[in-house]
Please model this.
Amino acid sequence: MAKIRIDGREVDVGEGGTVLEAARKLGIDVPALCYREGFRANTSCLCCVVKINGGARLAPSCATRAVEGMTVESETAEVRESRRTALELLLADHAGDCLAPCTNVCPAHMDIPLMIRQIQEGRLHEALVTVKQTIALPAILGRICPELCEKGCRRGVMDSAVSICRLKRHVADVDLESGNPYLPPCRGASGKRVAIVGSGPTGLAAAYYLAQEGHQPILFDEHPLPGGNLRYAVDPAKLPHSVLDAEIEIVRRLGAEFRQDFSAGRDASVTELRQEYDAVLLAVGEVNRAKAAALGSELQDKGLRARRGSMMTAMEGVFAAGAAVTPFRHTIRAVAEGRQAAAMIDQYLNGQLVAAPGAAFTVRLGVLNEAELAAFTTEANRGQRTSVAGAEGFTIPQAKGESDRCLHCDCGKLDGCTLRKYSMAYGASPKKYPLDRKAFERELTHSAVVYEPGKCIACGLCVQIAEQAKEPLGLTFIGRGFQIRVGIPFDGTMSEALRKVGEECVAACPTGALVMRKDAGLPEKGTS
Amino acid sequence: MMGQGLIQIEGPVVDVKYVDQVVQRIGRGPEAVIGILQAIQERYHYLPQEALRRVAEITQITPATITGVSTFYAQFRHEPAGKYILRVCHGTACHVKGSGLVEDAIRRHLKMEAGQNTDAKGEFTIEHVGCFGCCTLAPVVQIDAVTYGHRTSENAREAIEDFLELDRTGETKEKAEGNGRDKSAAAEIRVGCGSCCVAGGANGVKLALEAAVARTGASAAIKQVGCVGMCHQTPMVEVTNRGRVIQLYSKVTAREAEAIVRRHVRPRGLWRRVRARVSTALDRILTDENWAPVERLALDTRDGPVCEFLGRQKRIATAECGSLEPLDLDEYLKHDGFAAVKKVLVEHVDLDLVDLVKRSGLRGRGGAGFPTGQKWELTRKTPSDVKYVVCNGDEGDPGAFMDRMILESFPYRVLEGMIVAAKAVGATDGVLYVRAEYPLAVRRIRAAMAKCEERGFLGAGMFGSPYSLKLRVVEGAGAFVCGEETALLASIEGRRGMPRLRPPFPAQSGLWGRPTCINNVETYAMVPWIVRNGAEAFAGIGTEQSTGTKVFALTGKIARGGLIEVPMGITIRQIVEEIGGGVANGRKFKAVQIGGPSGGCIPAEMADLPVDFESLTKAGAIMGSGGMVVLDDSDCMVDIARYFLQFTQAESCGECSLCRTGTKVLLGMLDRLCEGKGRAGDLEKLEELSGQVKKGSICGLGQTAPNPVLTTLRYFRHEYEEHLKGRCPAGKCKALIQYVVDDGCIGCTKCAQVCPAGAIQMRPYQAHEIDPKKCTRCDVCRTACPVKVIRIV
Model:
């Protein structure tokens, strides 16, 4: 046994034990991307570095044997900085999207590929849950959304974008038509009440998510009926009031109260509302100077003054979101902001520091050249975009057919990727070091495993696993230095290389370089 | 380099029987892989897939190992190559003397597009070599076995033409080394036959001398000796009589051989004439720039420059430099050869060898300067039934050729040092790992080992003692990182040369997991002297912390470059000015690059810095293996930093994220600076990432790779700042300079004739102009201008 101290805590490790094992024994989360128990230390990612006995250098804990009396620092600024640099260098030439381009482009960052896989498999209810995690009013948006996601759709480069918006509408319509629409689970009542001024898309979305957090939303609106611009500015031929009413009804059933013919400033000042409620959200849509003044706020850049991120105005506990702050045309942004406001208000009500959630971490693959696009679309369904008449929705077979066109650009290992996990934990930026990303390639010969060399961080785990399993062909490092890559000997294929341990390699792979085929098993759960 | 030319060359038909024979000869075990691949490539000029598959079939070597190993080492080609391999040396000395321009010129001549490595006729395949170790002949180009020194963008094509001519007449094959000289003759004519000399034409000179002796019937023996050290004077011929040096000739050609022979049997008239010419020509001709093969020069060791060159030196590892025939075992014995071993094995002098070496203060000459005695002690005390002794001859630093010279010139001394070490630590097996770029060193050490075995100096019962040491030579295959000891051991075991984290040290767990004493060539070469003369004698030389002497390869912009051995603690100024004769061509001494890619640039202002381990490390450089490249005011320090980063980046094994990608990012930043695309904050970023790479990498390569960047940033920051503003003060960075014709152009049109880019319009008798848009900055016009009015701005 060797007794050592890590960050001031004493720990015993067995004969020949490593510092990493000791740290894990203490429950310290040391990022070790290239390490796997029972295998030789690869000392490749260098994310597990620690400082030993105050030395000048840092040492990879995975390969450093614990020696009696050793002093280890694993959480100092110096160590964290080195780990972050290692992560940033691993990200620098990473050829892959964590999140699909459509998700990145969508102001609400909806997990579109997941929704599509669920539609493909006929699991429409799960698809709806996926949608409603970020979009409170999908049936409405399915009719009036400007389809920004489709502009980001990589399929558009190949032929034409997947009809994402209509798929989302399909999911929502099926739910509404079921007669028993989905109501998300809500936390127990917090006893907190939030006044939402304005029941347009921002206010409705905020109410939808606040209710889920257990807070009671009360929506004040100057019109006789809720919906704001959705009811009074949008052409009912495009957005039938029946659809609008149905989705408002869901918000009501979650516990929201609607107070109509109420004008803030006239019927009650914002200060008064603030005194009566635990928080106030101003979601009144576009404002002019007079309206701003009536709300007790200054007009700044054509909107109410509110802090970016936290969305709180100068008045404590009073928030502003949507077109009231920034005039815009896209309803999807209003809905996205309503959701963010709900999150901010929830934080505020829980007494936490009000901090905006950062954008979800993602590496971006960017534009593909011709060869890369060909590789990307090798197995793409060749069907044309399903077109239906203006106001019509998809039938179930149409939705299924359209879903089949999706290229599934999101990473197959979004949750299991330790590179992503620790990049988030260490605040590593994929753009810190400007390097050209690797080429996008995809090896599809294996029946269960997909290999994308562009995401490989050369950790060597799969090489070792194949070697130990005595795979006849196996895997090997090819080349050296920056050109190093994991490949198959003698220009062989993955199906020849991994006859026995394909799944094990996928499980060990710290990134999305080796993943199970998306059609080989159940799709992953959504993350955001 | 993999020959990934755009030209598709038909591969040869693979003879399976040949592969079988190779395997039969070399072995079937995993450690045989590199040797087998080398043999296959020797036959086919590349590694045909079919042959590799056959190897996998009939050996224990897995496909993963074959593909992994064959793509790790730069020596191996995976595509058919041209008929001849044209290697352009990009060592430091070659780089600062314009190897880039030379390669451009060759590519133009062979009409090769960028990214294409084989010409359209399939005749020549261009490859890069990190360093041939012929730095005093820089820039160097090698075509098959023929080496051409002092190439310029102007004369590069001549090498190709000359080679094709030689090839037609069948003279391109390497000649076997001659022996069997007449040892009874009083007069001895010595020809330096180190690689530099051979590259300079020494073999031809030697054959011509032998022919002349035969023709004239003179009583003279032609003796092939090792490196003389004065590499700037190659090929060198020394005439001695009864051991006394009568005359030293430098830069001799075969044509002049007969004259030299006749001179020493005929009246002195001719000799006087030559001598007169010498005294005026000496300083001029001593400069590398004036190297002209037709020029002949006789040197007297009493002449000032020669005396200064040799005078400050103290020879231990290179003792009897220039007088011993490398493979003459009897001669070595006459010069105290194997006296150390006899003392230890035969006379049983009560010596604690580990203690002796510890007291001598000897530190590793390979780079880091780890105390040798400590290594030996640890190896000795680690219990094991089998221990190894390994010699690190993988001298990969560009600009360094000490180990090559020692192996070529004093193979017995290295073997003797290894035998002593083996006895000290209890090793019974050993390996000399020598890089494949040093074929002559490999041949000599193999021959020396054979002779020792023949005499009973190696193997079971060596020297009549109960002791046994079996040695073998393993050739590297082109990977700088294999100079790192754990990578080197991996390479001997037939694996990719990936270093591993230490501890455990090789002394505890080395080759095949056994305790292994691994030292550098030069370190071993010091050992016999220490055993003979005592630890105190060695410790009495040099400084307190850095004892003894150190061999340096003095190259670059220096008047008298060569191989020198000096006491530790000598100052840079003494080396550069007194031994090296100062900077060549009247330019200004700017800096010395010490320690190759792991080292740094010491500015001229710090020339009084003593050369010892501690002082150099404090200054941000390291002793390294001993490359010392002198830089003058025409050298751009950002370019130098970029040059070394390019080297380490290409040589990184790729294991550690910090080194693999970190060096790539650093190189990218330096590339942008050299292109005038630097951005504010870049210098800070360079410093920060350099620090991270140093701190976090697991082996010496990554830990020291940023040193050239950090030292140049430290001492020449203003040059970086100028680059940020889009200026290169030294006029080196192509993107930041322009060529202009000054007043005084005589309208000779020469520049326009030689310009490969059509950037100069021919205007007889009028002043010429250079179109900066078409100009490729190849420097051809400037060197061609007879009135020297073309200038870089």
Remarks:
- The first helix of chain A runs from residue 19 to 25.
